[in-house]
């Protein structure tokens, strides 16, 4: 089994594609065919090596560059652009204010939508910080800082710079 072309394709694959390739290779490990087991082991080793190198490079990559990469690889929707623009235009706003400013009304969902936007790009933005007031991740914290006592949000300066490189700046 010639696995070389699969190994050569690893750097250009998305995280989801690499996960699919890994799952397939792990299935091959149970094969009775020694060539298939060897190919699987080589492919898994190559995936491990890529992930290790990518993690090291990621740690050295500034948030500004990660924002640019995330939104170039997965462009924002009009809705997501409004979420970001509202925060860029009105730093220090509450979720109630950001709901209104981004066209969400009074549903108190801005943080959920903004957090989901970040979560959808975690492969490029990185892992989220932990939430302070509840168990689990604080997805919005990938791009924004929040004041716990007042529930006010401000875009992280490096995220502001990344969005500016993508042509999205505060309009006021």
Which features does this protein show?
172 residues, mainly alpha, Arc Repressor Mutant, subunit A, 2 domains, three-stranded antiparallel β-sheet, 9 helices, elongated
Describe this structure in words.
- By secondary structure, the chain is mainly α.
- The chain has 2 domains: 4-60; 63-165, Orthogonal Bundle (Arc Repressor Mutant, subunit A), CATH 1.10.10.
- Helix content is 58%, strand content 6%.
- It has 9 helices and 3 strands.
- The protein has helices spanning 4-9, 15-28, 34-60, 63-73, 78-89, 95-101, 110-119, 122-125, 157-165; strands at residues 93-94, 144-147, 152-155.
- The chain has a 3-stranded antiparallel beta sheet.
- A hairpin with a 4-residue loop joins strand 2 and strand 3 (152-155).
- The longest helix is centred in the N-terminal third of the chain and has 27 residues, at 34-60.
- The protein starts with a helix and ends in a 7-residue tail after the last helix.
- Percentage of residues assigned to helices: 55-70%
Q: Strand order of the main beta sheet, please?
A: 1-3-2
Return the structural class: mainly alpha
SSE succession: HHHHHEHHHEEH
| Measured distance between first and last alpha carbons | 60 Å
Strand content: 5-15%
User: What characterizes the major β-sheet?
Assistant: 3 strands, antiparallel
> Can you tell me the CATH architecture of the largest domain?
Orthogonal Bundle
Shape: elongated
Total number of strands:
3
Q: Could you say what the CATH topology of the largest domain is called?
A: Arc Repressor Mutant, subunit A
* Contiguous helical run count: 9
């Amino acid at each position: 089994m010639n696995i070389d072309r699969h190994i050569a394709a690893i750097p250009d694959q998305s995280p989801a594609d690499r996960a699919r390739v890994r799952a397939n290779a792990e299935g091959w490990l149970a094969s009775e065919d020694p060539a298939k087991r060897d190919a699987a082991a080589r492919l898994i080793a190559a995936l491990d090596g890529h992930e290790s190198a990518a993690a090291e490079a990621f740690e050295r990559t500034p948030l500004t560059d990660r924002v640019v990469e995330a939104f170039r690889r997965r462009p924002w929707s009009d809705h997501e652009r409004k979420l970001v623009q509202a925060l860029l235009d009105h730093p220090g706003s509450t979720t109630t204010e950001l709901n209104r400013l981004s066209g969400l009304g009074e549903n108190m969902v801005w943080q959920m939508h903004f957090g989901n936007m970040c979560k959808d790009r975690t492969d490029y933005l990185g892992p989220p910080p932990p939430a302070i007031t509840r168990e689990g991740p604080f997805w919005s914290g990938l791009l924004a800082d929040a004041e716990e006592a007042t529930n006010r949000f401000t875009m992280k300066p490096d995220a502001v710079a990344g969005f500016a490189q993508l042509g999205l700046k505060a309009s006021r």
